[in-house]
Amino acid sequence: MASAVRPSTYHKHDVVIIGAGGAGLMAAVQLAGIADVAVISKLYPSRSHTGAAQGGICAALGNSEEDHWEWHMFDTVKGGDYLTDQDAAEVLAREAIDAIIELEHMGLPFSRTPDGKIAQRRFGGHTRNFGEGPVMRSCYAADRTGHMILQTLYQQGIKHNLNFFDEFQMLDLLINDGQVCGVVALQIRTGELHIFHSKAVIFATGGFGRCFSVTSNALALTGDGVAIPWRRGVPLEDMEMFQFHPTGIYKLGVLLSEAARGEGGIVINSEGEAFAKRYAPTLADLAPRDMMSRFIYQEVKEGRGVGSGKDGVYLDLRHIPYEVQEAKLPDITEFIRVYLGVDPTKEMALIQPTAHYAMGGIPTDLDGRVLLNNTEVMPGFYAAGECACVSVHGANRLGTNSLVDLVVFGRRAGRHAAEFLRTAELAPLPPNADAFARDQVERLLSKGSGPTEKVGAIRETLQFEMFDKTGVVRNERGMREMLAILDDLKLRYQRVAIDDHTRTFNTDLLEALELGYLLDISECIVAGALGRTESRGAHYRDDYPDRDDQNWLNHTMVWKTSGGLRFDKKPVTITKFQPKERKY
Ligand SMILES: Cc1cc2nc3c(=O)[nH]c(=O)nc-3n(C[C@H](O)[C@H](O)[C@H](O)COP(=O)(O)OP(=O)(O)OC[C@H]3O[C@@H](n4cnc5c(N)ncnc54)[C@H](O)[C@@H]3O)c2cc1C
């Protein structure tokens, strides 16, 4: 049959970066002037999800009160329920300080203290003196911090004349004899395939919250860059560790950032009780997200929920003066007005936990090098940001620790890649480099015969069932059901057909491809969650409600093999802080 897709266009660069969010751009900027860099993004760069981050980016600058990187490291480890690799947490906390200053020097317009320093505020789980009480550690630009980071880094990319390939969707990773040598991408505007041949590849493709029905994540967060290497034999780490943020707008999942609680917002049940302090006497509403989400789950379970399904609670901002709301929380209050139709100075906002952040992903070392097993790296292949798992967030990420992860580990990946490129050779392309991507696209574009399935229907079932069975609380029965559902959905996916058979901006085609990634990733999430027979951080099983340090100071690892999923463990790196019970 004649190919429906024209021959691929060939490009050669030293390094190809997939993703133009905070992690990808930070890596790219490090390589400017050193290497020939291509940045490929399925979205226009400034539409990346980093731009949606409201709350802040933390570093122990100590601008508003005493603070130390050791305290930040401790909070990161404790917040991660001791699944955090402590060498990574140390790098994060130490290098955060310098990374923030670097962003400031690039021109990032941070909010300021009266004496002109970068302003800082409180955020859940960040404490002074190893847990004594909240500390002001989160730097911010009003509640548009991520937006400012993204704009600042993108401007740097433009300034340095980096090669941006906007609206190119990567479909495959090219590997020849164990050496990464590029990617294949579809140009969304033309429907044509492009081969990018390079010595190094950096993945910075963000998260995969779209596995769940109620999520804060943008539509594009379908985990492409996590599923694609997995299909090529790279393992995935700690996939069961998915964070649910307590304050999503009811039913919609749109995030009301933790800044709302940082500035004094409190959650309230149907009896008008501010219940968080009953569970977490020291930090109350500033307890970490996994705990807050479970507090809400418990209130709902005990019949104190609100909303049409009695499965939500309220967020109360009424006691925060209008001027403070407008100055410090303008986006949050706007969302409440727009999506819930209420005035936050007069009424409470209806909220529920929303699928928010993937702690797990592609395993990397401290320089962003992708790991094939517990020690062996894949030469030339890097990952950073939410798609990666350097395991700095362990079982639960603290608020404001992702943006800082992007800049610290994005920077390290970029710098290491620059070193690597000094001696690296360009590996030849594998034979028929674009064949796999081409087959996928052609199959979907061809009008097959026989009964067909719709993308939307499969995706809706997947998202609803994942939220229900692999959400805030899990157990073996629900997850076994989920595996059976996944088997059925995967069979149905093989018969998927799309209505649009044209080439230009074929979003039907893209959504069908993305659904394939969501199905693969969901299977890995369930595999990790079933394998981990304990409760820790964001992973709570009511059939194994306790943390089990005897058996589970370990990361989970899953591989795709011809015989199905292979599951293994990897020990946690513990340096300074011995695991203790997590009390707040
Ligand atoms: C609503 C919201 C608020 C948040 N608030 C905060 C906060 O206040 N503080 C904090 O620390 N963290 C926050 N987070 C988390 C944080 O924003 C994200 O973890 C982080 O921005 C992820 O950055 P990234 O660079 O890894 O990926 P992203 O910014 O998501 O970028 C991913 C990039 O990959 C590209 N891409 C993906 N797939 C493909 C493909 N197949 N082909 C080509 N390109 C592809 C996209 O086009 C995009 O450019 C928030 C998250 C959300 C959803």
UniProtKB/TrEMBL annotation:
Note how many cofactor molecules are bound and how: Flavinylated by SdhE, about 5% flavinylation occurs in the absence of SdhE.
**Pathway(s) where this gene product acts:** Carbohydrate metabolism; tricarboxylic acid cycle; fumarate from succinate (bacterial route): step 1/1
The principal location of this protein is membrane
User: Which positions does the record annotate as the modified residue Tele-8alpha-FAD histidine?
Assistant: H49
Where is this protein localized, as stated in its record? Cell inner membrane
Identify its membrane topology class: Peripheral membrane protein
Give any GO molecular function from the UniProt entry. flavin adenine dinucleotide binding
GO terms for biological process? anaerobic respiration; electron transport chain; tricarboxylic acid cycle
Q: Which residues form the active site?
A: R289 (proton acceptor)
Q: Where is the FAD-dependent oxidoreductase 2 FAD-binding domain?
A: 14-403
Q: Which domain of life is it from?
A: Bacteria
The enzyme's E.C. designation: 1.3.5.1
Give cofactor(s), names only. FAD
A GO cellular component term found in this entry reads: plasma membrane
Can you tell me which family this protein belongs to? Answer: Belongs to the FAD-dependent oxidoreductase 2 family. FRD/SDH subfamily.
Name the record gives this protein: Succinate dehydrogenase flavoprotein subunit
Species the sequence originates in:
uncultured Thermomicrobiales bacterium
